Amino acid sequence: DPGMPWQRKPTRSDIACLTGIGVLGILSLAMLPLRAWLLGSPDRLPWLVGLIGSRSGTALLGSVTRVGGQLPVVWPILLGVVMSIKLDWTYWWAGKLWGRGMIEVWAGQSPRAGRNYARAERWANKLGWLGMFVAYVPIPLPLRAVIFVLSGAQGMSWKKFMLLDFAACLVWLVGYFYLGYFVGDPAVKVLEYYAKVANYVAIGLVIAIVA
User: By percentage, how much of the chain surpasses pLDDT 70?
Assistant: First the structure.
């Protein structure tokens, strides 16, 4: 099937890897209501960071800390890094199994997707291993998935990939924390307002995802 990332009869590894990527997409959707609910209270911020590795949650944790909130910081960030990267190796495995095959599948969804993935791939090829740190830049390009797939396709070892991924995610989460710490009180006021509607947002997301 030309819509698959392999050009041969699939093996168990092929099917397992593609299933893992599908599960990642489902988990991302399923976690949206939980994110919305956990974001609705300062006391839940450490769990938002620790269980999901939320960037916005980490920034708000920094803001709450700035205004005197007595919330844990170290264990949520460290746990958040682990939870953020726990399944990233699936993309590395896709690159190791199929080379650029998964990127071609994503890029073939539409002409616009093709252009975006082509740009992301050019960035990834220029950056090399430093791309692991750029993968977390919040821009509207699929950098993270492309960089992870290419790391496997270009022969990076699993151990090096996971170490770089851990380091990159840690650097970014710490950066978000200090960004929130710098902003301080204005972000806390936004959080207080959001807390009033958080439950409704979470319920709305559940309905939307089910639909």
Answer: 100
Tokens at 177, concatenated? 């924390």
Among 110, 111, 95, residue whose Cα is nearest residue 146: 95
CB atoms within 10 A of CB 179: 15
User: Rounded to an integer, what distance in angstroms lies between the CA atom of residue 162 and that of residue 75?
Assistant: 19
pLDDT one-digit tens code per residue, 144-174: 999 999 999 999 999 999 999 999 999 999 9
Block residue for tokens 């949206």: 32
Average pLDDT, the chain: 89
Which token pair is 206? 């559940």
Rounded Cα distance between 57 and 190, Å, is 12
Tokens coding 61: 């944790």
